[in-house]
Amino acid sequence: MKRTFKILSMIIALCLVSAFMFACVVVPDDGKNSGSNSGSGSGGSNGGQQVEFVDYVSNLTLDMTSNTKKEVVTVKSFIDGDTTHFYISKSVASNGVLKARYLAINTPESTGKIQDYGHTASRFTKAKLSGAESIIVETDGSDWELDSTGDRHLVWVWYRNSATEPYRNLNVEILQEGLAIASNTAQNRYGQVASKALAQATAMKLYCHSGKADPEVYRGDAIEVSIKDLRLNIEEYNNKKVAFEGAVVNNYNNTVYVEAYDEDTDMYYGMQVYYGYSLSPGGLEIISLGNYVRIVGTVQYYETGNTYQVSDISHNAFDSSNPNNLKLIESGWGASYVERTVSELTTGKVYEGQELLGNFADLAVYTTVSLNNLVVKSIYTTDNDVESSNFGAMTLTCEDAQGNKVDIRTVPFMLDGQLVTESYYMGKTISVKGMIDYYYSSYDQDGFYYQVKAFRMGDIQINQ
To answer: What are the sequence ranges of the domains in the chain?
Structure first.
């Protein structure tokens, strides 16, 4: 009887296995089935899930006759996977720039805090929109709506690669690619299809849903470097955790600037450190002006500013032994404000012994200098958007006694409650204490221009 029962059990089990094999198609876990018709999803894995890929994006159609607001836009700057700044009609945004927060999705962070697959999501968004022939942003309802910050508009982003192709919904495509988690996904205009795209990516275990660590995120111990090392080899440290020391010499727009002296080249080197909005009070106190500190953070390329910065810094007061903590080494340090000439700034070279390291401005960026006896020849004022934090900031184009030109950039200055205007400096001879900075212009072949930035009105002294 027992033998008969065992035989029957084996027969039933074999039948079940056979039925399963013939009824299902198992997607192999070989990294080739990404769930993306773009072929860019190789970072995801489906773990053998029984999923037949559906391109849900192709099921959506942009209805130009609906009551939603729609505007044709062009990209101003890429921020991260779910945030892009677009040029738009001034009837929508007074300064002609719409800061778009994508509806229904939340991609991993890639600015400030670095999260798994954040850089992948950023690259995906940039690649889709950079190659687009046309981009349209659409509201979810009948009017423009701001997010909880009050600064970004919530929109659907549509793009097409040629005039003969239909528009594709980038929000849903990011979900479908597995590069975002839900953010009120079902409670929106395209919630039903967005939810299906998200469910499919989850079932196929793509990227954010893979349960695997992002190989791009550096997880080793912090690399001990000097700021000089960072300036000379910044690309080698990209996306890596580093630790360095320096004096905090400026603090502006959630960013501190740190400089340190190098004896071999007899000059200072600087780095900008973005601390964002979530640093603890204890951490903020450590990075106060004049403190000599140890910084531990991640090197990243800041797309909007076209520069490298260190971010993802932290301080845990309850874990004083944490090697990733910000650390105060000494107080009472001041900015160097080394006296330089305009020609040094514009054409100077840096040598270590007989070896040429590079251009002075390239290597000394974000360090403090002083320039004396400059004549203000012309002034440009940023005045195109009264709501901008740069409204009233000025660029003073100056000459030294040899006719060498240099730009002095200010933040908006206030005097007796009034905004300081061009007449205050025009034609005057000035001396400046500031930080070597640069700005990027897409209208010029070189792109980058170095300037000296003054953060306080007292940094510019009128000589006559």
So the answer is: 56-209, 223-330, 370-462
